[in-house]
Amino acid sequence: MSIAPAFHPIGTPGVAWGAAERGQWLARQSRQRSYREDVVDAIDRLRTRFDVEDYGRLVYGEEAYPLYAVRSRDWHDERPVVLVTGGVHGYETSGVHGALRFLDLYAADYADRVNLLVVPCVSPWAYERIHRWNPDAIDPNRSFVEDSPAGESAALMRLVAPLQGRVRVHVDLHETTDSDESEFRPALAARDGKPFEPGEIPDGFYLVGDTANPQSDFQRAIIEAVAKVTHIAPADARGEIIGSPVVAPGVINYPLKPLGLCASITGARYTTTTEVYPDSPRATPEQCNEAQATAVRAAIDYALAHH
Questions:
Q1: Cβ partners under 8 Å of residue 159, min gap 6
Q2: Rounded distance, CA 193 to CA 14, Å?
Q3: Region 223-228: what's the mean pLDDT?
Q4: Has the keyword Membrane been applied to this entry (predicted)?
């Protein structure tokens, strides 16, 4: 669906932001929900069943955010590793709560078959502000690169570095929202001093595979499972979803590594980025969370069946 963007109030059209404009942007951000109450407390309730690792700490001004990863308690090195990440974009709510839902309801089904490493909320500051960026106006999901400028991305890469070559599945949980078009893409254009080109928000769930390693059957299996929970996004009139060609129902591909995207960090054989559409009149928050958890389950099931 098309969303009419509002005029972005910060900066001069055609001129990239400097420190003053970034400061103006930061001053407009306000805390709207609690990372501790929504995420940390939920992780604490899982401690009786999983190992919880404090893998870093983000300090922004007077605020500090501990970063948590949840691991299989019965970890065996001979088992394949499954990485699940949520909240790389903090405003994408079902990514966070879908990861927590998977841990609470479904992870036990895989206890003796895989080693699970789940990071429910990569970007806690942005989770609280319901925003895409971190306080430096940096998008963590374009920052999974060497010497990353985003603390969120750098911390996650340090966490998974010892697992390079051992991760079989990585599912990165995201959303595509109406605010992408009305707020975040206009802000990106303003930040970079570029013209804003309106796009179209797809109505439904879709996946982003890796152009260099598309794994089409894997992606198809996830789509088929999620279709039982919520509707799949159709291609637009150009045969695209968010400007990329649809290569199978509900599937597009991106060059993950060159774009610095989270799903590129392990080199896993099976990688995908989920995209739930929470603003659809046809989807509830419960459906969105379940769609994310279902995608993780389908990804693991496929990888185990095709070892």
A1: 53, 55, 56, 69, 117, 119
A2: 4
A3: 98
A4: no
Question: In which residue are the tokens 């999983």 written?
Answer: 50
The first and second tokens of residue 213, run together, are 């390693």
For residue 98, what is the enclosing H or E element?
Answer: helix 93-101
Mean pLDDT of 110-115: 96
Among 153, 136, 125, residue whose Cα is nearest residue 66? 125
Helix (H, G, I), strand (E, B) or coil at 115: strand
CA atoms within 13 A on the CB side of 33: 14
What distance, in Å, lies between the first and last C-alpha atoms of the chain?
39
pLDDT score of 7: 61
Q: What is the 8-class DSSP label of residue 49? A: T
Beta bridge pairs of residue 155? none
Residue 117's Cβ-side half-sphere holds a number of Cα atoms within 13 Å equal to 24
Contacts of 286 (CB under 8 A, 6+ apart): none
* Residue of 3 and 185 predicted with greater confidence: 185
- Residue 226, helix vs strand vs coil: helix
Domains and CATH numbers, the chain: 19-305 (3.40.630.10)
CA distance 185 to 164: 33
